[in-house]
Structures are given as C-alpha cells and as structure tokens.
C-alpha cells in the first residue's frame, strides 16, 4: 500500500524508490483536491510570484542585449543589432506594443519579464501536475518560485522569462501529445512557431521532442502540424527579413553572428570545453539552487535502476528535451546564465520528483514539508542576501543573480549616465565603453559623439571628429591598462572611477585596438 501524501492530497508512491514515486505512467492528477482547483492553484503561484518580483524591478537596461532590444522598439533592423541576430521578432514587437503604454523601453521590457516570470511559475506547476502528480507539482512550483535565476531574469529587460513560460507550455503539450492526446497537434505546432519568434534557438533545441510527439499522430495530422508550424514561422519571418534589408541582408547578418559563435566552439579546444562546462554548471546551480542536491540524489538513484529507468515513459521525452541544449552549450556556445532557462522546467520537475520520493522513502510525511520549505527558504535567502559576485570576482559567470546585483547595476549605470549628462557638452564629447556596457551609450547618451566607438574600433587608426575635445571611458572594461598623464578620474559613491581624457583645440585624438594617440591637427 502507498504512503500518505504529505501534501494531504491522496496517496502516492510505494517503496521501490524514484520510479515508483511517479507510477507506471505519468499521473496527470492526484486524488483528493477537485481537479477544477488546479488552475486556481496555478494562478495562486503566479500571483505570489508577481508580488515577489514587483519590488525589485531594474531601473536601467541591464545588459547590452537589453539595449539591443530597446533600440529595436524604435527601429527594428537585425543588421544594426536592433536586436542582434537571429532577430527575436515577436519579442521586439510585443515590447513595442507594451511600450505604447509605458513610453519607456526598459519599463516596458521589464513589465513583460515580470508578467511572464509570474505566469511561468503557474505553467511550471501545471507541467509538474501533467507529467507526474500534484505533490510533485507543488514542490516543483515552490522551487521555481524561489529560483534565484528565474527571479533575477524576471526583473530585467531580457526575453528569458517569456522564454521560460513558453518552453514550459510547449514541453507539456509535446509530451502529452506523445502520450496519446492527438487533439493537441494544432496547439503544439502553433506554440512552437510562436516560441521560435521569441527565441529561434528553441525550435532547434526542442525540435527533436516535437518530432517525437508527431510519432503517434496519423499522417494527416503530421502534415497539418508541419503546415501550421511553417505558416506561423513565415508570418513573423517575412516581416522580420523585410525590416532587415530583405532576405539577403538578414542572411548576411545571421551568418556573421553565427561565425562569431562557432568561432568559440569547444570541439577539439579543451580550454574552451572546460570554460563551457564550468559556465553550464554554474548557471544551472543558479537556476536550481536548493533543488540541485535533490536532483543529484534522484539522478544517482535512477542510475542504480537504469534498466528500469530507460523503460520509464518519461525517459525518452526528458532525454530529448535536455540533450540538444546541453550538447550545444558544452560543445558550441554558452555565455549568459539565461541560456539554461530552456532546461530548467524539466530539471525542476525532476528535482520536485526527487524531493517527494525522498519524503516517501523516509516514511515521515511531515519531513517533506520541512524539506521543501527549507529549500524554498535557501533560495529566497540567496536572492535577497547574496553578494553581487562570488569570491569578489569580476568574471561574468560568478556575478550572482541576486538583489545586490540588480541594485548595484542600477547604481552603476544611473550615477554615470546622470554625471555625464550634467557635466559634458554632447557636441564635444565622445564616449567609449566595454563589457556589459558596450551599447549603453547608444541608448542613454545618444546625443553624444561616436557612441558606437566601443564596437567600431579596428586595427586601423581612426580619428575622432575635429570638434571633439573630450573622451569618456564609461567603465574599466575598455582599455583598462591605459596610462596617460592627461587622464582625469571622477570617483563615485561605490568607489568606482570614471576616466576622462581632454586635449587642446589644435589637437585631435586617434584611436585603434592597439591604443590611442593625441596628434597635432
């Protein structure tokens, strides 16, 4: 006989470990609570997530990608990296629509992040419910609700929160269709096409799982699924290409970006392989946090029962969900923590599954309450109290998804932008930036000179306009070792410096990747 459900919603599991905790087939609903309440429970999780996210919304565009998206709301052109390839067309158009209400690109994009971060937690609850059972759904949603990475991405102007919501929805649709619900073929194809318009990579990474879901359809449904997907993709691809110089212009921009990414591929380059693996591990730790240890425990337990495990109904769809993305991130490219959000829905379900199984095995139902609550609290504390960076590092992977990171980033940008605007003549001042700030002058200081200097510098020497007599180094990421007697430094309240270079009326500044020179006109 099964053990009492620690969440008070029926009976679950047996004594044979992880596999017994989910039954022979995924259990879409548990006994006890009326099914009609599940949508209200999901909505409740979304409301709680919304309340948690609202106080910490970022005030400035967080990342250079955020600036790309913001600029695309005014003028969409992938060739100009407004936004960067492959285009994210539907995300930009949604941002443009929301911006009619906000009249502020960052506020509009952050509002989208907050909303879909909250809705994503409700979708995560329904994913756990649809694939396993209600206890697992509760544990999964609580881990997702407090995940530092999901929380952080819900506060900034990036499209990862919208991606998390969409991936959670289409993952559930695909798996339920593969399990035999043939009525979902239209919605599966439609949602995959829409998701591709937000993040095109998802069509590639989740394509194998979608193809698996087509196996049990009849030939007419398969054909109609392909047609539906194709029509949805064309509906956003055609205007995207048209706004980016036509098909040829778009392809050239896409190829240039692809070449830059593949140049970092770790195939046969062991240093890059190690870097990619370490980034992936760190980013997954940020996303799972308290759920990481249960996931590892469950994985080890599953490996001990691998012959049974590979026959489990969820083994193949979970494998096809995870494997393409993991292989790409390890062998080709991973830079931002948000990249792993594609993997988090299924990994969080597996963590919730492991937590409930562990409570089942120790035969102390109340212990499961305390365990889930403790991990929820651990995640909460990390987001609210963790320092901006681990070990005091300036390396991007060790920059934590935390409240401190949001506060310090807003302070860093706000003080610099306001100081520059108040103290320098836009007609005579050029600005150069690096790192995360490489495009911020293009948006916040667009009246100043050569705001594109940061990413236009080449091996060849180029001169600034003759009317310019001041160059501002927005951060220490650009030419950090520059040592000139004429440099002036302004210190901000956080201890950071703004470097300023001035020269005479009869002089002109020349700059290249190798440095800069002040020459006579």
Characterise this structure.
The chain has 521 residues and is α+β, with helices and mostly antiparallel strands. The protein folds into two domains: 3-8 and 27-385, no CATH class; 414-520, no CATH class. Helix content is 58%, strand content 7%. It has helices at 18-21, 37-53, 64-74, 89-102, 105-131, 134-146, 148-153, 160-178, 185-198, 201-205, 207-213, 219-242, 246-262, 270-288, 292-304, 306-309, 315-331, 344-361, 365-385, 403-423, 440-444, 453-456, and strands spanning 3-4, 11-12, 429-432, 462-463, 470-473, 487-491, 497-502, 507-512, 515-520. The chain has a four-stranded mixed β-sheet with strand order 3-5-7-6, with no helix packed on it. Strands 4-8-9 form a three-stranded antiparallel β-sheet, with no helix packed on it. The chain has a two-stranded antiparallel sheet with strand order 1-2. Helix 5 runs antiparallel to helix 6 (134-146) and helix 9 (185-198) packs parallel to helix 12 (219-242). 45% of the residues are buried.
